[in-house]
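Weekly modeling sync, notes
Attendees: S.R. (lead), two postdocs, one rotation student

Agenda item 3: backlog of single-chain predictions. S.R. asked that every request posted to the team notebook include the full sequence so nobody has to chase files. The rotation student volunteered to paste the first one in as an example of the format we agreed on. Action items at the bottom.

Example entry:
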Amino acid sequence: MPTRISADWLLTGNGDVIPLGAVLIDDRGRLLAVGPDDTVPAGPSIPSENFPGSILTPGLVNAHTHLELTGFEGMAPETEFADWIRTIIRLKAGRSPADFLQASIAGLHQSFASGVTTVADTGDSGAPAEALALLGGSGITYLEVFGPDPSQVAASLEGLKSRIASLQPFHSDRVRIGVSPHAPYSVSGPLYRAVSAFAEEAGLPIAVHVAESAAESDLLMSGTGPFAENWRSRGIPLPALGVTPIQWLEEHGVLGARTLCIHVVRADATDIARLKAHRCGVAHCPRSNARHGHGRAPLRSLLDAAIRVGVGTDSAVSVSPPDLLAEARAARALAGLDPAASLRLVMLGAASALGLEGEIGSLEPGKWADLAVFQLTPSTGNDHLLEAVLQGGSRGVNATFIGGRAVYRRKR
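Predicted structure, as returned to the notebook:
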């Protein structure tokens, strides 16, 4: 049976703000109708819910998370980036599979309470896929694979394939599985090429951390810095030098329309042209980038190049508490965006970066009924509705719906 949700205002995510708006949802969880209240079917036989003093928006889309790291907040003090990563590895070594699942569930509940309905998660435990399936969530779980030494290619690839197969019971229309050859400082060129070929053959999306830090660039450009020193100490042959991280990915067949490039802080005009030519998506994490001292990503240039960009929170270890709208505000300050463009980075823009713009990111008939309801103050003027959503953050969320089903309601 169809259900109906209405509010004082409705933001479609396609540029329209409708006073007294409503949506009609079918029994599959998809939108049947979207528009002014008096144009959306209603009646005593249709269950309905109204949110007075609120605005109904598309559910937010988090373009980059690490849900399995939830609970490590404050346990990895800021140090040089390579040392910080080693701290994360030690922390993860102390968790069991059950711990990773509980952490992922907790992270998803935090997401729902923030109006987030879809997450693009990267990690090596696979627990977020199970958590998404258990809670009826929506997202992509990119399963990480590591192996900086070319001699590790066969073992790393076989291990990845085995773990991908183990996650298939959680795969559905709303829970997708992808791969993540982690980063240029943890994956060899041959492994990049092997994983990319596997993903192409299996039709899997790819996510990769790239162009994030100075140490990563130093490794590939000059064979210097902490990552290069670590490789030498382990007897790992250095990669061919004199290339940027994005050029390195291009040379090994990683870039493509199904590839999400995470961070992209250190990218010049030539690198941006590479991303555009290969139709890659980008996950921008401004507060994480700032916390680790990586620098200011060229967000304005990425957007001007019409590259698909979404914003992500990264892990709770990097920035806590996770707040996607705080990331959108940071992105606005970085690139000089207006409220509509800022919100697009966590709605339709983020959906597009993940290749999911046909399913989520805006309120249109046929798409999933993924919704967030934000409380407005009595003084909110008609000209400041988007600013109110942007500034309200997770504190302003009254309810969150995935496929028309409430996954969060503010306690009253």
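Discussion: group reviewed the output briefly. The mean pLDDT is 95.
Action items: rotation student to repeat for the remaining queue; S.R. to check formatting next week.
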